[in-house]
Amino acid sequence: MLTSTNKKNNIWHYLVALIGVICISVLAGQLALNGLFTIAKSSYYLLGKYKVNYRSFLLISQAIMASAIFIIAPLLYCFSIEKKSVRYFFVGEQRYSQFIMLTIGLTLAAIMVNTVFTYWNVHIKFPAYLKAFETWAQKKEWELKKLTDLLTNFKSIQDLLIAIVIIGLIPAIGEELLFRGILQNLFFKSTQNIHIAILTSAFIFSAIHLQLYGFLPRFLLGVLFGYFYWWTQNLVFPIIAHLFNNSFALTVSFLYPKSATVHELEGYELPPIPIIIIFAIIGTLLGIYIQKKTRYLHK
């Protein structure tokens, strides 16, 4: 029988192994990216047909690196370290048509309620002794904003659909596999407390994006995705929730390009409070309903 100390030591072994696999995948992704553009450059000199703009370069780079870090690495880890098949993450709730609709409804409600926390996070002020840190954080945020503005500069519906696949679908699958499927399960096995496991994995999920002024709303979404996985025992539903959140933001960027960046440092306005309250009530009721309908999975 494993003692508490053995469990803690065990999780560190798994975490070190996971980090090692991710590092190898990052290296492989970088080599693949370098190889791809070496071939493309050679094609340009030989055929004169190579043409790619900076935005396309960024999208291709993101697709390759995100796939390497968040999909290939977790799968390699599962197969080689934990000896699990992909099916392990999808054995729970199977009533897909009903629960996908419930998942989307609760995620939409959460997005609306999360605007309150986004507003607070965007307008956070630090004490004078943290001025240097605040200046660094704001500079970092503006750099990321410029990148976001470039990636969401859609000229057509085709651009939007490509972005949904690269910025929406790939991160949704990969990040849920890593943060909920692997890390949340590891933390739960170590602590035997699902709430600590969800909060810890959500904290890491938000922190790894390196956006201080979007940390809190992203953390809260991570918590929601964590409970989706815990309630349903099926990674499909947090993936759907994550994809819907990303696609919603991208679609808003397409329809309202002047407000493309969600986490503006200035000028961010809240929706009317009554609307936020209505969505909070709807979200709470949906959460209670989902939890009640999936209770049989935890008996």
UniProtKB/TrEMBL annotation:
A Pfam entry, by short name: Rce1-like
Residue spans crossing the bilayer: 12-37, 57-79, 99-120, 160-182, 194-215, 268-290
Domain CAAX prenyl protease 2/Lysostaphin resistance protein A-like: 159-247
GO biological process: CAAX-box protein maturation
Alphabetical keyword list: Membrane, Transmembrane, Transmembrane helix
GO molecular function: endopeptidase activity
The organism's place on the tree of life at top rank: Bacteria
Alphabetized PANTHER family for the sequence: CAAX AMINO TERMINAL PROTEASE FAMILY PROTEIN, SLR1288 PROTEIN
Name by which UniProt lists this protein: CAAX prenyl protease 2/Lysostaphin resistance protein A-like domain-containing protein
Organism: Amoebophilus asiaticus (strain 5a2)
Lineage summary: Bacteria, Pseudomonadati, Bacteroidota, Cytophagia, Cytophagales
